[in-house]
Amino acid sequence: MADAPLLSLDALSVTYATGRGPLAALQDVSLAIPKGGAMGLVGESGSGKSSVVLAILGLLGEGARVTAAAARFDGHDLFAEAPALRGRRIGVVFQDPSAALNPALTVGSQVAEPLVLHRGMSQEDAAARAVSLLSEVGLPRAEAVARAYPHQLSGGMKQRAVIAGALACEPDLLLLDEPTTALDVTVEAQILDLLEGLRKSRGLSLLLVSHNLGIVDRLCDDLTVLYAGRVVEQGPAEALLGVPSHPYTRGLLGALPRADRGRIGRLVPIPGGLPDLTQPDPGCNFRARCAFAEPACAAPQVLAPVRSGADASRLARCHKAGENLIWPVPDEAVRRHRGEGDILLAAEGLSRSFALGGLLGRLSFRNGIPRLAPQAEVRAVDGVTLSVRAGEVLGLVGESGCGKTTLGRLVLRLIASDSGTLRFAGELVPDKPGAAFRRRAQIVFQNPDSSLNPRKTVAEIIRRPVTLFGIARGAEADAEVDRLLELVRLSPAYRGRYPHQLSGGEKQRIGIARALASRPDFLVCDEAVSALDVSVQAAVLNLLDDLRDRLGVAYLFISHDIGVIAHVADRIAVMYRGKVVEEGPARAVLAPPYHPYTEALLSAVPLVGSSGRAAARIRLAGDVSSAAGAGGCPFAHRCPRRIGPVCDTVVPPVLEPKKGHRIACHLPLETLAAVPPALGWA
Amino acid sequence: MASYIARRLVAVLGVLWAMTLLIFGIVHLLPGNVAYMILGEYATADAIATLEARLGLNDPIYVQYWRWFTGLLGGDFGQSLVMDRPAGPLIAEALGRSAILAGISIVLVAIIGIALGIHSAVHKGTLSDRLLTLLQYFFIAVPEFFWCILLILFFAAWLGWLPATGYTPLAEGGLVGWGVHLILPVFTLVSGLIAHVSRLTRSSMLETLDSGYVLAARARGVPERLVLRRHALPNALLPTVTVLAVDVGILIGGIVVVETVFAYPGLGRLLIFAIENHDVPLLMAGMMVVTTVYAVANLVADILYAFLNPRIRYGRAAA
Amino acid sequence: MSGAVAVRRRAIPGALVWGGIIVGAIALLAVLGPWIVPYDPDAFSVRNRLQPPSGTFWFGTDEFGRDVFSRVLAGAHYSLAMGFGATALSLAFGIPLGLIAAFDRGWLSEAIMRAVDVLISVPPILLGLLVLAVTEPALWKTVVAVGLVYVPIMTRIVRAVGLGLLAEDFVQAARARGESAAWILAVDILPNAWPPIIVETALRITFAILLGSALSFLGLGAQPPASEWGLMIAESRPFIEQAPWIGLAPGLCLCILLIAVNLLGEGLRELLDPRLRGRG
Question: In this predicted complex, what is the ipTM?
Fold first, then answer.
């Protein structure tokens, strides 16, 4: 490496002024990106990774104090010249494309803006160039997109437009701050392909900030792992993820549920939470959570080569980094497959539509003549039939807007269905079910902040269902509360706390305890771990696993995360546009034959350590909102294996390659079975 | 967009129709005999009978309503009892004078309020921002009628610079004679509203400056003045438009007070006159006109909002 | 997700403290008024007509020789009654209506909201004028009129707050347990709905005092010889050059009260909901 790096940060520190004193968001962060190189910056929330991006751009605002021994960009002093580099030589893509585009301006004008400002182009030339940029990032009908306003585009299209804008002045470096986190997995795959292609075709350097190890592994040569404002490990991506050195990185990989490994063993959670950054620890700041901590860890740690001599590119901030550190696996659960029980919950032909707009909204005028448009509807759930056996976990997977949350509420009768029947333990469940059903079927929610009444203590929250359903009274009920707390691994000391005094993972445990308080047989887990960081998520997933084994509760486990679903589910149902397109035992669904949508979904999952997987990648065009015909297969409009008009107009037949594995598709089973595995295991 | 405007128009017409019911209902259905109310407690039975016949008060209530409602539609606003003239022209004349007050005021409120709000937001935390915030507190809290008294006391009574009350038509007094009668009323009307508008513009501007697209624009290397003008302002003004519409309602309240104090012969004073003299037909017609003006102002604000907001201007259809 | 538990205890804003102290002091004076006034506020005294402020008459006397200071003190309860009474009335109707409109998904909610649309389309002062025009003016009627004017606004706000809370997952959890609507309302909705409603209430009190005193000023509220501040200002107009103190004293007191209530509202907003924006 004779060339000087394009970007080099040396001992970058950022401190925010807060009400509780200065908060050390970044401490001595050093990294270097060579010309044409791609660096991944990985960390959980609160690690300070986004602060790095804003510090490079010089956009941290007034409350932040930025210092560095040196910060250079291609020979320039970065901090002195950041305003001149922004938009010209450094482009940025932020997480949420809906927020990054100005709702009041056309997409084209926002892409063209830097060309006019920095290149001195005329409006017309810039507009023409914007159109070609938009088509370069893979947007069809780029002229129309350029004329459109942001609200008229889907999330994936917006993110492509944002990328086009970032590329307008042909920058050398592209900063990507969680560029796909707000997107669905199939759209995420498109964007990652695009970025990969752009990197090759333009010789771009990338700094990719993400919490998702699979994404950085796909796109980056080098990785920097950030924990609570400090770099804990740095090195070539493949080697680092193959054999991580720092206990934190090791823990992170052990905590990650991986779609390609299916239901194996236990996840390894990292106990505890982030340290208080207003009181920076001079020693290792991970040691409170580390399984290998010893007195020596209280001494300041330096980022040093893992093994002296041989490979100087591997750095870790841990004096034990050279040792073979294996996180202790929590007790192996029994992991009985409980799918052999009786059918507990059976939904047949459940449908639910939602009306769009009120009476006045339907009124329109053509040539001055008023018309009342027919009531517009979205079919959120469209004739879904599925069943859950006692003690079984049915994973329900699908992208945003596919109707999985609505389905979860329908089977609990939290919203009324338009048609279809619901049976629970063999009995028909009426629209307004009685206490018996309510007691036996409960729910755990996604958002820990919204799921607990902020004015109630933990004990009050958990006690209510206990007394409501007559499970216990008085002192007995208090004992029951303690038992439930113990069940979700929280000490009785939590009884008197209020939700705002709990961390996200703790809130989620209370939510689970509340759901279990009525001793249900069936639990809907609606994205129950999606809001949590990987290290915390692993603990909650393990907990849910144990509870199933100990209590025999059946779950309808709803998630957009295929890794999580693959980890928890006995059976999997795949939903698209309100319909279940494939359903069957987990191993069968995750291997060919697939429904073409399942295939696309699985090949879109960014996996850790499978960079060579590119061979059989299936990519979908567009996204769920792309217009679809009515009557046929819901996936026909995006299906890469579409046969012809029959897909649009005729309801696909249900193929049954194995007993209990159902695929709704027009393609012959042989064709589907011949597809190569999308996950790397069959 | 056209359909949107048409929909709003339908809604406004619906509201106005409901207002005819409300106004008619309150006047005619509230306990108390209308003729008795007009004539007072010393009225003779004869006089009451005569008036009832004249106003058609003996007809069934729906016939009376229908007569009044169709009259309004046909431009017949009824007859003023006290002045014995058709209410329509009386109101039209007064409305014109009030419109001058209101028009000048709302334009001043919009321009000065928005400008001060933006200034405060951009210079958040500076001395001028703090000073403006302090002044806003003060100006929002002073009631209009007390302002009137203070201004008359100061500029008319002590300094003698401006006339305390009255009105001179443009044709008679010329621009100066006409204008001097407007200064104090307009100042009274705008002081509180400017404070209100500037405060809200400040907060919406601050919110916009904190948005993702402003950050993205800065990251694109857009210079700060362009960030403000092109990216922040159009979005920050959306809530201000709504606030201005609400403020028209407050302004109407202010006009009633201000015209009374400054003896300015506008619609507000006419309304108070009608109330004091129990001129029921004039009151009903005047109320209807004021409500219509307010409804139209809201309609204009809605259209302006839609024009500034592409989410309404263009539908959701994907490109 | 931060593991470090942040126990937030917001400091009490200064605006709340000062606003509270001033409003409290005025309320105290209003209550103690009858016992501490130096003179009978309604007693004529031809000898002492239009006296300027002095050691004897702190705020001077009016055209009937009544002591302005005593009258101002005795008048404080009118403004407070109008502000708090009318707002209480708007809450008494607005909260139930708003909650019904939030809970109900059928015609009842539709009917309430359409009625609110209509009433909100009338400038507030006109609705007050209309009600007061057809009956003989009296203070209690002003209070009722002003209260009714703000019912639709309260209804709208309570409904918005209610809808927001109904969408929260803890309410969904309660429904999943089969809790009754009454329980959800009492335990999950109302305790969490208070902060925004309290902030709005403080704002409404300011507007109610303003509107009520304006109506009195126009002769449609309190009637002579009441020493309501708006009415006192109206009555002082003929003597504005001769004896400005007659109008200035109640006017300044009114301003102080309004600023204090404003401060109180601002402080409550800061304390309870930093994101809520003010409305007209």
Answer: 0.84
